[in-house]
Amino acid sequence: MSPKKRIAMHDHAAEASLFKRRALFTFLCVFILISILLSNLYQLQVVSFQDYETRSNDNRIRVVPVAPSRGLIYDRHGQLLAENQPFYTLEVIPEKTEDISASLDKLNEYIELSADERETITERLRYHRRFKPLTIKSRLTEEQVATFSVNQHQFPGFRVEAGLKRHYPYEGLMTHVLGYVGKINARDRTSLEKSGQWKNYAATNDIGKQGIEKYYESLLLGKPGHLEEEVNNRGRVIRTLKATPPTPGQDIYLTLDLKLQQKAMELLDGRRGSVVAIDPQDGGVLAMVSSPTYDPNLFVHGISTKAYSALLNDTSRPLINRATQGQYSPASTIKPHVALLGLEEKTITEKTRIWDPGFWQIPNVERKYRDWKRWGHGWVDVYSSIMDSCDTFFYDLAYKVGVDKMAAFMSKFGFGEPSGIDIYEEANGIMPSKDWKRMRYNQPWYIGDTISVGIGQGYWTTTPLQLTNAATILANRGTRFTPHLLKSFKDETSKIDTPIDEREPISLNDDNNWEIINEAMRRTAHKSRFTDATYTAAMKTGTAQVFSVAQDEKYDSDTIAEHLRDNALIIAYAPYENPKIVLAVVLENAGWGGVNAGPVARALLDEYMLRDEWKVAE
Prior knowledge:
The chain is α+β, with helices and mostly antiparallel strands. It is built from 23 helices and 23 strands. α10 runs antiparallel to α22 (593-609), α14 (335-344) packs across α16 (391-401) and α14 runs antiparallel to α21.
């Protein structure tokens, strides 16, 4: 018989101790986990509350920029030169259309879609969110808008959206002054980002490219507004929370006179050339015409490669602003300035006379510098030398004065440097000197170079704007203004005139020298082109050689290529006693200045001086 098993007795004390240890461990684990949870909750809800709230709002609220309307541009009399016109775009929301392909086929019956447009739409649909609008066709005509509106019930999900685009009502008339707006390219964006202006273009794809549009971009652009929209996690708009309207660009008023601009373009009649007119009382540009021109509206919606290539390859260079970028020999139009220098230097006096046999020679040199009048002008003084444009007189004067004195004196009139006008497209021109030639060509200066410069030929080149500005200083007897195009701008409450930039005047040793030169120009005008004018005027013509003719050869315009013929120039102002307008006309390859540029100047001064406003003022 097996012995009975003994019943083991529990050690209650040990079990109690084990339980306590386990309970304590469990409690510590729970405590630690709860502490971690509470710590994370505190971190999320207290410490990082602002950050996560912002992230949440970013996911919930979308800010949509709203484009401002671009400021308008007017002439000095309030005539609209650049406006904003509505344009229409046809869009579709794909999710609201059962069969978009069938809808496009049907749409083609009313609004023609090219094969390229259909292909582009199909390609974009692959990656486009179905609840967002997709552009089907832009730049709809009013007829297309009307046709679609009548039949819109047949196209669920389709709609017409309107916007504003720049429009130039006078097309090519103001192109080289106003410039144009175009699409922002990579270079524009880089520049805007560097200057910190990129945020202002959040709602627009356009920027001023040339002329006034570019120079006063900051005034014309305005500031974008925005819409705050609540969206779901898929980006679908639920509601609009807040709308901040954009600030429109400021309207600006230019110094230009539309009627004078139109008259100048009419007189150029498609010929290559330029007209610049300035108000001598403040330096405001009254007219600035460059011909031929082009329609800036082509660039607003994006010009085609074919159209741009045609402009770029046009031998008449319509893209160049001849008024500020065209560089021409000033020819005889600067003889009054050279004569003024001679009087100042006392190289000549009012009574100085020289004999003109039809040529002039450097002492001990055989070469003859011919006068335009081969048999000569006989005895000439400062008055007759300007009236008859005697080359011989100025050959002799230039030889005695020297090129460096000419360069220093002419620079005071703005030759050889930018005028400071408020557009970026401006050439410097060339006011030559001995140092200039050494730096440019690494060659010495010759006396023959001086002789050519003395009659506005040789290395000397100027722009029509510089020539007009120099004539304005002459008419003003030394008073100088920086030429400008902006007259005033309009903010939210009033029109603000821009300050006039009057520069330090040119002072002469003898102020009577101004009167001698201007009197010579008055006699020139009333001896020829302005004989029957009802107002007093002053002028000087010029005929600039485009290529050199040997001294034994005779210039014959009928036997040389058209692009090698002389340029025709004239400067003029009126009225003589108190000038209100100064102008310069340059006609490329037109021939004799007085015959070809003269009638243009006379017609323009008639247009301006015979207005009723002057009669009332008098």
